[in-house]
Each structure stands twice: as structure tokens, then as C-alpha cells.
Write a structure and sequence with these properties.
Strand content: 15-25%
Disulfide bonds: 190-791
Enzyme class: hydrolase
Number of strands: 30
Structural class: alpha+beta
Largest sheet: 8 strands, mixed
Biased composition (Low complexity): 509-518
Mean pLDDT: 78
Distance between the termini: 82 Å
Catalytic activity: Thiol-dependent hydrolysis of ester, thioester, amide, peptide and isopeptide bonds formed by the C-terminal Gly of ubiquitin (a 76-residue protein attached to proteins as an intracellular targeting signal)
Radius of gyration: 32 Å
Helix content: 25-40%
Pfam family, one: zf-UBP
Length: 833
């Protein structure tokens, strides 16, 4: 025995010596976390493995990235990093007595040790104590790193603190003595748009002069056009309230001077100045009606059968993240997204950057793969799925005692919401707005290669007919969602609704509690008719008659997408300024044929409105550097600039309207805001720098190649880059918002005017759109419960193998009565004939 113990001691000493040597060799790569370092010790960068998962979590002691047992070897081979802190937690449920009752309390037992690759040699805290006498400086560094990692806040915890929306807002220093102009402005409860650019969302009303202007432009190009900010810079009026957030309890007020959200203790008085009486508003909502909505949409009256299996992974609610969960569940079922982010998963992970937690493609693949991993639970072999795996993947951490607990998309939510003032918080959001935001992110991250958002992309044709000249104008734009209006006057139970309103008024006058109101029954055909009926434009500037007149605008599909998204426009404002949701039931069909809404283009014998041409100038031209340059009315140019329009656009407006005054120039601006060269310098006929000539400034060749690879011509790419100061991301956004103008570019390959005839020139290609039959079948819908998009809850229903399934965050069940009439967003796929 003594000889055995001696041999064992010698072996142990040899092992510790080897460990010492390894630690010496990796000392320079072992870091101690510092303030500001991102420590991922809660979840894997490539999967949803955690310390509670089978195999625990390995945290790199250099980059502080976390990896599950299936991905740590990949990171070691790729980076050469050898030291990892291995964290495992075991859930232990203890029963304690509290108030005479047995109460279960979850506790965790945590084990931490250093693992050295490639041989996976383990070093515990106790081992370090025995090694201290050998190489003190090495062991001190390792001990400090271990202690620092254990003490550091994880990224997920930090994000929860940052996303907490319970920040304490301070009273604005301008609130008490805010100056308000007596200009007679009264703000209506609906129909707002920016007074400069006609944007109809993200609108702010200045509390000094009542100007309604759009908010800041976000980092991703969405949001507003900064006109509210520009107005403050020009006037100094400091406070603005966000339209759409006003309730009897308050509103979002921003101080441009203090650069923060603030409180305004006199907000009721300030709003009343412009006709908004927020203190007398009452939320006339039927509690019974709303409770019924929650029960019906969540199918609470039925005992639903839980499901798990192929594509049936639930997603945890991270605090008002149900909007994200619902949207992503639907997108995961679309083949384009599966192909892009799952079919080549091995390539995506191998090519991931040094910090995969900040890479959009990696995190999309991670989320999409983890959602699909349930498929693998039920398969014995998956070699065909991903050749890098040498054994089946068993997603055991998704289940606790047979119940699905789902995955928590913290890392993904933080990435897609980064820099966005709304999606970076834990506040409830509009699922439709998030879907558009997400599509925008996909577009920006798919500048080359397959773009799955093309599945939703379609072209809209707008036809405007001048009623005086009967001449027409055709334009096209790109869209991703069809917004369907709700014509309340078309309700089939109108008599019942009117009787309920009469009873409500009687109850209100007598002080009795109101009874439950019936739900309006709106035919889907009526919504579709409201979408397609002509719209009357009363202040249309006709280039044919050179004056304002009346015109009609009709909207049709220039192409039909593979997958059609329809939004029911349920959210509006009442006459009392209360934000409300229309309580309607719409008989949304399972199959849909939109062929009758196909755009027909210019008809035989139909005359087009003439293009706006330069009018004769009323002042003489002067010759400057050999080029005829007009003498422009500086006062008119200044007035337009004060409204927030670009200087060069203002100069062109004055020039092309012949110095005839502010009204004519303003009409020109409003009619040409979508021109591709709206903000470009004024170029006169005969100028050597006219459109179509080779630009003198250099353009990044790699940016040109990227845009051309998306299906656009080199001329179009050149025009987009010149209009955005050679910023690639802005150029891509710009090119998609100027499609109709780009298609009319009179240039040929190479950037010079073509020498051939018009007939010999092929029109430059536009954005890639898929087209086909206008026949669709419903496969998913997202429903909202609550009174507005700022509160409530979202769930989605998806049809899988002819069975409707309800996804309510982490709960996934077979649906018995899918409430298709109460949806908010509907998803259709094209019927292949």
C-alpha cells in the first residue's frame, strides 16, 4: 500500500508539473476581466447551451466568450486558445416550511474549474493551492482570472439592466415657463403627417408652436428625417411630445436642449393650448370585451395538447418580447430563411468573426438552428444535416421533467435592437414595425448572396390621373407589407352596434356601468375594396396644366411576392385623442386571389403627363466659368431652406419654376422629393457635368461591384453612391427608394450617354422581385391582445402539416379553434398551380 501511495504521489506530482508547464505557456493569453469587458458566462455563442446544460459552459479566459461542449473544440482549433473556465450548475429543489405550507425553492450547485485544451486537463481551485509554491506568478494570474470571471456581471445581466424601462425622468427646466405661440393651431386626433416630408410615423409636436414634424433618423436608416430636430435648431423651441403616446396618464416628452426624455408637469395645459384635452379623456373600453379577446386568441377555454418535435421550439418571454417571438416563429417556417441560415450552418460558424455574438448572420443561424434542433431530437442520425457533427445532437436542455421551457433569445434580441430607441428596450412594441425593422436588417446584411427577404418584396404601381387634362403618371415603389384599411361603416351588424352605442350613452348619462359591446363584423372583401378604390388628391400639381388641380390615385400590384404579408390597420385614435384598437372580427379567407389587382400599366391611347421641364426665366442669366448660371431669388431659396429642404434642391426648385415665388417652388419640391438627384447640385442643360457623363470624383470600386451584384446596373450604382457620399449602406437604402426614377435613367453602360437609338437601349434592371400568380393560401397569423401596441401580448398561429399550432412564447400546443378573424398580421404563401 505504501509503495502504491508513493507511486500515486509521483504520478500526481508529474501531472501537476505538466499542468504548471502548460499554464506557463498560456500565461500571456489568460486575462483578468476589466470594467467594460463583455463576459458571456450564461450562454454559448453558437447555441443555447448554458452552465445548466449537459456538459456545462466553457468561457474562454482570453475573449470571455462562452461555448457549449459541442463548440468549444471548434473555438480552440480556430484560435489556438487553450485555457477555458468550465462552469457547470446543477439545479437542486429544496422544500422548506413557510406559514405551514411546503414551499419549493430552486437552488443551484455550481462547480468551476479551468480546463486546458487539447487534452482537457482540469485544474480546480484546490489544485491551484497545491501549485502555488511552484510558479506563483502564473497561479496568481490564473486565480485572479477565475475570480474575476466569477464576480463579473454576465452580458445577459448587463443587458437586462440596460433595457430596464423604468428610468426616472427629470422635470424639464423649460416646463414651468414654456412659451407657447397664439397661432391658432389645433391638432386633430388623427391624419397627422410631417409638415415637411409628409412622413406619417414617428411624429413629434413642438409644444411651443404646434408644428408636427418627424423624429430622428435611426442608425439603420429607419425612423424619421430629423425635421423636428432641425426645427429646434432653427427656432430654439425646446420641448416636443410624441404623437401616439398621449394618454390620460401622460406622454413621451423630449427636450432637445437637455437631450433627454423629460417630465412636463404642465403637459395638460400645454396640450390644451393646441386643442388636446388629455385630462378629460376616458378609456371607454369594455373589460368583458377585452377579457374575451384574451381568452379567444389564447384559446384559454380549451385544454390544449402540448407539442414538441420538428420546428416546435418555444421561445421564452424576456420581458415584453412576445412581439419578437411571434415574428421569428413565423419567419422560421419560410424556406428562404431556412436555406439561408441553416442549410450551410457549418460554413457560417466556421467563417464567423472573432466575436460571433455581434455578427448578424451567425446569430440568425444560431437562433434558426436552435429552433430547428427539436427536429434532431427525434432523429437518430443527422450526418446529412451537418457533416461536422460526429454524433446526434440531443437538445436536452430544452426540457425539464417533460415540459418544454423553450430557448431565451437574449443575445439575438440585443443584437437586432442595438442602437434602436425602441427595440433596445423592454417595452412592448408593434410587431409590424419590428418585422419591417428586421427585414431592413436582413437587407443590409445580404448585400451579396442570397437575400431571404426577397420572399416578401413586391412592386406597387401608383397611377395618378389629372382630372383636368385626363393625362396619367405611373410610378413604382418597393413594399413588403400590404396595409389593409378597416372600413367600419361596412360592418354587417351595424344595427347591433348602433343599439349598443345608444345603450352606452344612456348608461353614461345615468352613471350606470356600461354593458359589453358587440364586436364589429367586417367583411374581408370590404377591406380589400377600400384598399383598391381610387383616392382623390385635391392639391395635385399637374405638369400638363401647370397649376394645382384634382387628381385620382389608384394602387395596384406590379408584382406578386412568394409570401404575402397583410396587416389589418386596427390601431387608431378616437376623437378624444385616446389611442385605441378597433375591436373587429374580419372573415379572413384561407385562400386568396388577388389577380384582379394586377397593374396593367399604360393603356392604349392613354396620354402621359409631361415631365417637368425648365420654364423660361424672368431674370437674365449670367455667364460664370463658361456655363450659363441663373440668377436665383435668394429670399425664396432661403425660405425653402428654413423648411428643412437641402440647399441644392431649393435652388433647383426656384430655377425650374422661373423665380415665380414660394408657392410654385414649394409645389415643385413636393412633386420631386423622390427624384434620384433631388439633393444633387443644380446642373444646367449643356453642362459638362450633366447626368450621364462620367463623374470626376472617384467611386469605390468595391462598392460599385457590391451594388451591381444585387442586380442593378453600374450606372444606377454610380448614381446611388454619388447621392450618398459613397456610403455603401446609405446607397443601398437610397437605390431601393428611387426605383422608378432609376429605371428611367437615360444612360448606358459605362456612365456615358448611349449613342444608339431609344429602341436599342434596354431599360436598366430594378430590384430583384419574384413574380407569379396572385393566388395564395394562409399559413400563419399573429394576433395582438390589448388596447394598443404599447401594451398587451402577442401570440402566433402557424399551420404545420395541416394542423394549426399556437405559439404562445415558450408554450407550444395544438390549436383547436384558431381565431383567424381576430389576427393583426396575416402571412400567405403562393399557391403553386
Amino acid at each position: 500500500m505504501r509503495a502504491y501511495l508513493g507511486l500515486y504521489g509521483q504520478t500526481l506530482a508529474a501531472d501537476m508539473t505538466e499542468v504548471n508547464e502548460i499554464l506557463m505557456s498560456v500565461l500571456s493569453t489568460i486575462r483578468v476581466p476589466r470594467p467594460g469587458d463583455r463576459v458571456h458566462k450564461d450562454e454559448c455563442a453558437f447555441s443555447f447551451a448554458s452552465p445548466e446544460s449537459d456538459g456545462g459552459l466553457y468561457v474562454c479566459m482570453n475573449s470571455f466568450l462562452g461555448f457549449g461542449s459541442k463548440y468549444v473544440e471548434r473555438h480552440h482549433v480556430k484560435t489556438g486558445q487553450r485555457a477555458y473556465l468550465h462552469i457547470t450548475r446543477t439545479r437542486k429543489t429544496q422544500v422548506r416550511i413557510e406559514g405551514g405550507f411546503d414551499v419549493e425553492q430552486e437552488q443551484y450547485e455550481e462547480e468551476v474549474k479551468v480546463v486546458l485544451f487539447p487534452d482537457r486537463q482540469e485544474v480546480t481551485s484546490e489544485d491551484l493551492q497545491t501549485l502555488i509554491g511552484c510558479v506563483g506568478v502564473v497561479l496568481l494570474q490564473v486565480s485572479l482570472s477565475m475570480a474575476g470571471l466569477q464576480a463579473a456581471d454576465s452580458v445577459s445581466h448587463t443587458l437586462q439592466v440596460q433595457q430596464w424601462d423604468g428610468e426616472v425622468r427629470q422635470e424639464s427646466k423649460h416646463a414651468a415657463e414654456l412659451k407657447q405661440l397664439d397661432n391658432g393651431i389645433k391638432i386633430p386626433p388623427c391624419g397627422w403627417k410631417c409638415e415637411v416630408c409628409d412622413l406619417q410615423e414617428n411624429l413629434w409636436m413642438n409644444l411651443t408652436d404646434g408644428k408636427v414634424l418627424c423624429g430622428r433618423r435611426y442608425f439603420d436608416g429607419s425612423g424619421g428625417n430629423n425635421h423636428a430636430l432641425l426645427h429646434y435648431q432653427q427656432t430654439g423651441y425646446p420641448l416636443a411630445v410624441k404623437l401616439g403616446t398621449i394618454t390620460p396618464d401622460g406622454a413621451d416628452v423630449y427636450s432637445y436642449d437637455e437631450d433627454d426624455m423629460v417630465l412636463d408637469s404642465k403637459l395638460p395645459e400645454h396640450l390644451s393650448h393646441f386643442g388636446i384635452d388629455m385630462m378629460t379623456m376616458e378609456k371607454v373600453l369594455s373589460l368583458n370585451q377585452r377579457v374575451g379577446e384574451w381568452e379567444v386568441i389564447q384559446e384559454s377555454g380549451s385544454t390544449l395538447r402540448p407539442l414538441w418535435g420538428p420546428g416546435l421550439t418555444g421561445m421564452k418571454n424576456l420581458g415584453n418580447s412576445c412581439y419578437l417571438n411571434s415574428v421569428m416563429q413565423v419567419l422560421f417556417t419560410i424556406p428562404d430563411f431556412q436555406t439561408k441560415y441553416v442549410s450551410n450552418i457549418d460554413k457560417v460558424f466556421n467563417e464567423a468573426p472573432s466575436d460571433p455574438t455581434q455578427d448578424f448572420k451567425t446569430q440568425m443561424s444560431r437562433l434558426c438552428l436552435s429552433h430547428s434542433l427539436i427536429v434532431l431530437v427525434w432523429n437518430v442520425t443527422i450526418f446529412d444535416f451537418c457533416s461536422s457533427f460526429d454524433k446526434p445532437i440531443i437538445n436536452v436542455y430544452l426540457f425539464v421533467q417533460g415540459d418544454q421551457v423553450g430557448i431565451a433569445p437574449r443575445m439575438f434580441k440585443a443584437l437586432v435592437g442595438r442602437g434602436h430607441p425602441e427595440f433596445s428596450t423592454n417595452r412592448q412594441q408593434d410587431a409590424q414595425e419590428f418585422l419591417l425593422h428586421f427585414i431592413n436588417m436582413v437587407e443590409r446584411n445580404c448585400l451579396s448572396g442570397m437575400n431571404p427577404s426577397e420572399a416578401f418584396r413586391f412592386l406597387v404601381e401608383e397611377k395618378i390621373v389629372c382630372q383636368q387634362s385626363q393625362k396619367a403618371k405611373y410610378t413604382q415603389r418597393v413594399d413588403y407589407i400590404v396595409q389593409l384599411p378597416v372600413p367600419m361603416d361596412q360592418a354587417t351588424n351595424m344595427e347591433e352596434l348602433q343599439e349598443a352605442e345608444r345603450r352606452r350613452e344612456e348608461a353614461e348619462s345615468s352613471g350606470a356601468p356600461p354593458s359589453a359591446a358587440p364586436r364589429a363584423q367586417i367583411p374581408f372583401a370590404a377591406c380589400l375594396a377600400a384598399l383598391s378604390e381610387p383616392e382623390t388628391l385635391t392639391d395635385f400639381w399637374s405638369s400638363a396644366v401647370q397649376a394645382k388641380t384634382t387628381a385620382t390615385k389608384t394602387t395596384r400590384f406590379a408584382s406578386f411576392p412568394d409570401h404575402l404579408v397583410i396587416q389589418i390597420k386596427k390601431f387608431t385614435f378616437g376623437l378624444d385623442w385616446v389611442p385605441k384598437k378597433l375591436d373587429v372580427s374580419i372573415d379572413v379567407p384561407d385562400t386568396l386571389d388577388l389577380s384582379a389587382l394586377r397593374a396593367m400599366g399604360q393603356q392604349p391611347g392613354e396620354e402621359l403627363l409631361p415631365e417637368v421641364a425648365p420654364l423660361p426665366l424672368v431674370t437674365p442669366d449670367v455667364k460664370v466659368k463658361g456655363i450659363l448660371a441663373p440668377v436665383l431669388d435668394d429670399s425664396t431659396v432661403s425660405q425653402l431652406c428654413e423648411m428643412g429642404f437641402p440647399l441644392e434642391a431649393c435652388r433647383k426648385a426656384v430655377y425650374y419654376t422661373g423665380n415665380t415665388g414660394i408657392d410654385a417652388a414649394m409645389n415643385w419640391v413636393m412633386g420631386h422629393m423622390e427624384d434620384p438627384d433631388f439633393s444633387a447640385p443644380l446642373v444646367l442643360p449643356g453642362s459638362s457635368s450633366a447626368p450621364g457623363t462620367t463623374p470626376t470624383e472617384s467611386l469605390p470600386e468595391e462598392h460599385l461591384v457590391t451594388i451591381v451584384s444585387m442586380g442593378f446596373s453600374r450606372d444606377q450604382a454610380t448614381r446611388a453612391l454619388r447621392a450618398t457620399n459613397n456610403v455603401l449602406e446609405r446607397a443601398v437604402d437610397w437605390i431601393f427608394s428611387h426605383l422608378d426614377d432609376l429605371e428611367s435613367m437615360d444612360v448606358s453602360e459605362g456612365g456615358r450617354s448611349g449613342g444608339g437609338s431609344e429602341a436599342s437601349r434596354e431599360p436598366p434592371p430594378g430590384p430583384r422581385v419574384r413574380d407569379g400568380t396572385g393566388k395564395y393560401e394562409l399559413f400563419a397569423f399573429i394576433s395582438h391582445m390589448g388596447t394598443s401596441t404599447m401594451c398587451g401580448h402577442y401570440v402566433c398561429h402557424i399551420k404545420k402539416d395541416q394542423q394549426w399550432v399556437i405559439f404562445n412564447d415558450q408554450k407550444v400546443c395544438a390549436s383547436e379553434k384558431p381565431p383567424k378573424d381576430l389576427g393583426y398580421l396575416y402571412f400567405y404563401r403562393r399557391v403553386v398551380e
